[in-house]
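PROTEIN DESIGN WORKSHEET
SECTION A - STRUCTURE
LENGTH: 118
TOKENS:
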């Protein structure tokens, strides 16, 4: 559900930084957006601090316009599954690379449809 490399953690959606990883389930790793929401809120308010015991956490699942870094959390999902771009980063140099918009790369191809929440 996640990959740990030294003091770096890679996970699809997020973690609960207040609980050990072994006590968390796949719903948190695959779907939970709380770490992303908290990171964005703290960034907006200019509040610094470490989000967890990890040096860096790389997450996706919550699309952002461009990769966002705050308090050790890297939000890397730039919406390629919808109509955004695919972004990649060299985690050692922090060099970012992004594709053109997927609608430019695949003109005329219908993207995923957003599900309505009732």
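SECTION B - SEQUENCE
RESIDUE ASSIGNMENT:
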């Amino acid at each position: 559900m996640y990959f740990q490399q030294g003091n770096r953690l890679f996970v699809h959606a997020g973690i609960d930084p207040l609980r050990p990883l072994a006590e968390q389930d796949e719903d948190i790793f695959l779907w939970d957006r709380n770490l992303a929401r908290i990171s964005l809120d703290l960034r907006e308010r200019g509040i610094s601090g470490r989000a967890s015991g990890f040096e860096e956490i790389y997450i996706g699942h919550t699309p952002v316009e461009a990769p966002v870094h705050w308090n050790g959390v890297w939000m890397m999902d730039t919406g390629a599954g919808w109509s955004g771009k695919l972004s990649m980063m060299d985690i050692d140099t922090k060099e970012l690379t992004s594709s053109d918009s997927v609608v430019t790369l695949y003109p005329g191809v219908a993207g995923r449809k957003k599900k309505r929440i009732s």
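SECTION C - NOTES
The two ends are 29 Å apart (CA to CA).
The longest strand covers residues 2-5.
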